[in-house]
Structures are given as structure tokens and as C-alpha cells.
Amino acid sequence: GRLPGLDLPIELGGSGWSTVDMLEVFRHAGNHNLNLRDVVGAAHGRPLAKSNSAYAKHVLNDIVAGKAYVAVAITEPDAGSDMRAMESRAAKVENGFALSGQKLWNARLRQATHVVLYTLASNGKPGARTTFLLPIDHPGLQIVDEYAHGLTGNSFGGLKFNDMFVGPEYLIGEDGDGGKIFNEHFTYWRLMQSAAAIGCGEAAL
After folding, report:
1. How far apart are the C-alpha atoms of 10 and 12, rounded to whole Å?
2. Mean pLDDT of all residues in 113-131
């Protein structure tokens, strides 16, 4: 199968490889070049498999074909992986949502065709988060470049958006599902990054 689709379900055009098998793939990638961790598997496009929207399915098809790469934007200037400190927000408006906020310390935004963006949920439930899939050139979405020592060949920076209109077709899951989507995806993703780091360390030794 194609490398980007290795860890996507077979019914979506992927190869359906198990987590255990993917750990070895990521370890092998890190052993050769840590940047290869962004070549094998669907990366942050994996949550799209949980969406029923036609837009998400279209992007998934492009990921499998090697035509799309999805970055993720969670961290903020004052909020790291602690989603409870997130300030970016979504407000329900006519025919969609208005998103406002800022993201920082996000990788590969300049290489990405799309980004998975997390905000506070518009439903007002305490602690609830919402997840959106946006094209990287979505109107109102501004990339802010930063420099990170050692990340040669890997863009790094953040996003700014203020009252940016987003239609309902860009929603992943339901309003308020962001926490569940984050936990499921990053339980997998942190394992893969650990495997890649182990492979990189083995090569260094």
C-alpha cells in the first residue's frame, strides 16, 4: 500500500496496519531520518476517519494518494498540551462558526495542505473542545513563522484567526467532541513519536 495510508482503515483506501506494526515502521523511519516520521502513516489526518462529512472523506482520499498532508494546531502561547488552558474559541453563528484565537509551536504549517484546529466548544460546556479540519489557505487563517533550532527542513510557527467564518462541513465529529478526538488520536501519535525517537537514538549510538 501507499506509505501515507498504512495506518488508515482498508475501507478508506488504507492498508489497515496495526498499532504494533506501525511502531516498527516509525522506529525504522527514525533510524534513517527523523523527518520520515511525517511520511509514513496519515499523521494528523487519522481523526478524519471519524468524520462523516464529504469534505473529510475527500481529504482522506488525497492523503492516501499522497496529495495532502494534515498539520495540527493545538498549542497556544499560554497553553501547551494542557487543553484546559486553551483560549481559542468557536462561536455559533448563522450557517456555521466564527473562530478567534492564536496557535503557536505548530510544525509543518508551510508544508501542509490542511490543518486540524482545536478550539473551545461553542456549546459553552465547561472543558469542552471542538475540532475543525481547514484548508491551510482558508480565508482569515494567517500563518506566523517562527524559528526552531535543529528543525532543518521543517517549518515551524503558529496561526492567527479573528472572527474567521467556518462552515459546518469543516467540523470533525460534533461540537464538543474535541477532547475525545484529541485523546484517541494522541494516545496513538505519542507512541509513534516515541518509536521514531528510539530509532533516531539507536542510529546515533
Report:
1. 5
2. 92
Rounded to whole angstroms, how far apart are CA atoms 197 and 153? Answer: 17
Cβ burial, residue 73 (10 Å; 0-12/13-18/19+): buried
CA 78 to chain centre: 19
Q: What is the pTM of this model?
A: 0.92
First CA to last CA across the chain, in angstroms? Answer: 32
Query: What's the CA gap between 8 and 64, in Å, rounded?
Result: 8
HSE value, Cβ hemisphere, 13 Å, CA-based, for 129:
22
- Strands 129-135 and 156-166, by their bridges, are unpaired
Q: What is the pLDDT of residues 41-55, one digit of tens each?
A: 999 999 998 788 899
Mean pLDDT of the chain: 91
What's 191's DSSP letter?
H
Specify whether the CB–CB gap between 173 and 101 falls below 8 A. no
Locate cell 509543518: which residue? Answer: 108
The span from the CA of 26 to the CA of 122, in Å, is 36
Closest CA to 127 of 176, 194, 172, 170: 176
Measured between alpha carbons, how far is 19 from 41 in angstroms, rounded to an integer? 11
The length of the chain in residues reads 205
CA distances from 123 to 20, 56, 92, 97, 151 (A): 37, 22, 8, 11, 38
